[in-house]
Amino acid sequence: MNFLERRKVLKGKNTLDMVPKKVYKITDNDGIVTIHIPKFKNKILVKYLVPRLKKPEIKLKLDAFGSQVFREMDGEKRVSDIVNSLREVFGEKVEPAEDRLSKFILNLYDGGLITFKEITGVYDG
Description:
5 strands, alpha+beta, two-stranded antiparallel sheet, globular, 5 helices
């Protein structure tokens, strides 16, 4: 799905009621999550070019807030449940939590880093 198709799927849906799912592998070092994004997805490039690369993936490190959100995304929890968890961990520092998390989740979705359980045409890159 391209950007406009992914955006159209979300139109009219309440982000807080959706269940986000990770698309890429992550690692968690000392509470900081790193997302491992492959540089190439084309099978031919992966087969011939990636073995020659020094670094075959891009590593995206998240801050404490983003790391907590990514740890909470298990494919079962709704965004509203993640908001409650953030309030427990960060307290007042995270407010306004619903707005911040909704924008963050939509940015991750727009970037193809996550998808939603409710979407039938799952984004695969």
